Amino acid sequence: MSINYDHFSSLGIALVVSGPSGTGKTTVCEKLLEQNKNLNFSISCTTRKPREGEVDGEDYYFISVEEFKRRVENSEFLEYAEVHDNYYGTLKTEVTDKVINGEDVLIDIDVQGMRQMRKASSGDSVLEKCTSYVFIAPPSYPELEKRLRNRGTETEDVVSRRMLNARKELKAWNEYQYLIINDEVDKAVNRLQSVITAVSIETSRLTPVADWPYV
Amino acid sequence: MSINYDHFSSLGIALVVSGPSGTGKTTVCEKLLEQNKNLNFSISCTTRKPREGEVDGEDYYFISVEEFKRRVENSEFLEYAEVHDNYYGTLKTEVTDKVINGEDVLIDIDVQGMRQMRKASSGDSVLEKCTSYVFIAPPSYPELEKRLRNRGTETEDVVSRRMLNARKELKAWNEYQYLIINDEVDKAVNRLQSVITAVSIETSRLTPVADWPYV
Questions:
Q1: What are A60's strand-pairing partners?
Q2: Contacts of A203 in chain B (CB under 8 A)
Q3: What is the CATH number of domain B8-42+103-208?
């Protein structure tokens, strides 16, 4: 946990963050990571080839299709998906190893990934205790469209597809525990940090060590 | 709620805060109230006579013993207690009227009061939905003793009694949802504000208005 409560031991927090493309989720997460040194992105597995400069175990765990499939068979993934003929997935151990070590992990996945992860975590006492689900939404559809267009890199076709997808994803907002409207980046970052701070001082997460209440 | 989520309606938050004498709870609460304009102390009823400068309906609701007892009989109190021959209590309506109006209320009561309030709120959908319970604790017993002595106004006898009482109250920490260790005032204020911010964006508290997901 990010707060030093000397008389307690506590698991780290696994923060699942979803939000449609164009919401500003990536900017919010990166700003948060800058200011919160106990928080790191979870590292995904992928079957795609490393790009120039990408480091195995830092950017991704680069594994073969065979190994990926074997691990799927073994139920080692919290969630995975095939995108453009490559597999991407989050290993259970990637999350549990870190939270058991007291580190907080940010897991950036979409609504489908969240649903898979909920299922895969069910019955796992560590994962059930340490995971919080946050949905990031744009302040309005017109604002979302503006943000997608302002990127300047998307074709009309891509913008339309993203808007349609956003409409679908936004309907899942209440499958999450917290809703962050990204009206201003700094406010959204502050809300996300507030979730981490509040969750980290939930009494249900704190295990007193021998000298509490104080000797 | 303190955050403007235009597409949602939401109840205010009733924040119950307890903590043994000497914890610094009052300082933390007052600092928080200074920076959070949507948050106010709940106003208690009392049977004691107003002191110089005290205003009815601002400092307290000053009522007669007969009226207090009648309201106790009517189950109008969330909690009440007799202290030095005077009654003090928090009316249900004091909290529900404010939260229904979207205001956040800080309720400063002791462990006994919290237990009474939990019972009195049980089955009341507004109170159950809007109330969060926070316990403020000192970083250690020696530090608590130091703080009590540093006031300079307490006799040895009072210090001993407060230390004994603190030991008793601290055992109730996990009857609350959040534990705030007051190691530094600013950190404690920030933790309390984080609880308010996080609770206010819990999806279970947010009711979408007709145009969500956005028209």
A1: A56
A2: 135, 173-174, 176-179
A3: 3.40.50.300
Q: Are A134 and A15 in contact (CB under 8 A)?
A: yes
Q: What is the pTM of this model?
A: 0.94
Q: What is the mean pLDDT of residues B94-114?
A: 96
Task: Name the residue among B165, B65, B73, B172 with its Cα closest to residue B118.
Answer: B172
* ipTM confidence score: 0.93
Q: Of the candidates A170, A202, A215, which has its C-beta nearest B177's C-beta?
A: A202
Render pLDDT for A109-150 as a digit per residue (tens, 0 to 9): 999 999 999 999 999 999 999 999 999 999 988 999 999 988
Tell me the C-alpha distance between A182 and A188, whole Å: 5
CA distance B207 to B197: 17
Determine the Cα–Cα distance for residues A5 and A163; give it in Å rounded to an integer. Answer: 44
B176, closest residue in chain A (CA to CA): A203
**B167–A201: do the CB atoms touch at under 8 Å?**
no
All structural domains of chain A with their residue ranges: 8-42+103-208
Phi first, then psi, for residue A142 (nearest 5°) are: -60, -40
Q: Which residues of A touch B9 (CB under 8 A)?
A: none
DSSP B29: H
Pairing type for strands B44-46 and B39-41 reads unpaired
Closest CA to B201 of A18, A175, A135: A135
Instruction: Say yes or no to pLDDT of A2 above 50.
Output: no
Q: What torsion, rounded to 10 degrees, do the Cα atoms B112, B113, B116, B120 define?
A: -170
